[in-house]
Write a structure and sequence with these properties.
With 119 residues, the protein is an alpha/beta fold. 43% of the residues lie in helices and 23% in strands. The protein has one domain: 3-Layer(aba) Sandwich (Rossmann fold).
Length: 119
């Protein structure tokens, strides 16, 4: 079973994503408020990270930079999501894909599966 790490700070969204992904046969793990995302990736070894651009009081692009600069996490696929269209910035900084919120569940599932299969 493939594992998705949800780096999302909206509790309602996390609940919906967990339900949706479970229905699709995917395991999910989510971060907590003060978690170090890189450390969680190393511990949980997800197949894909779904990373919100605006996470708690942190910048998702800076977190992406940390993921890409760490040898232990650099190759993990990262799908970024935001209500703002910052796709080009996310891809330039190393994201594997970008989803503009609100997104359709099928679009999310397709992107996650593409990235699981390319990992």
């Amino acid at each position: 079973m493939s594992k998705i790490l949800l780096a999302e700070d909206d509790v309602t969204m996390v609940g919906l994503l967990k339900t949706l992904l479970k229905m699709e046969g995917l395991e999910t793990v989510s971060i907590k408020l003060n978690d170090d995302v890189v450390a969680v990736i190393k511990r949980e070894k997800p197949d894909v990270v779904l990373l919100d651009v605006h996470l708690f009081n942190k910048n998702g692009l800076e977190i992406l930079d940390e993921i890409r600069s760490d040898k232990g996490t650099a190759s993990v696929p990262v799908v970024m999501a935001s209500g703002l269209n910052v796709k080009e910035d996310c891809l330039r900084r190393g994201a594997n894909a970008f989803l503009l919120k609100p997104f359709m569940p099928d679009d999310l599932i397709n992107l996650l599966r593409q990235n699981i299969n390319s990992a």
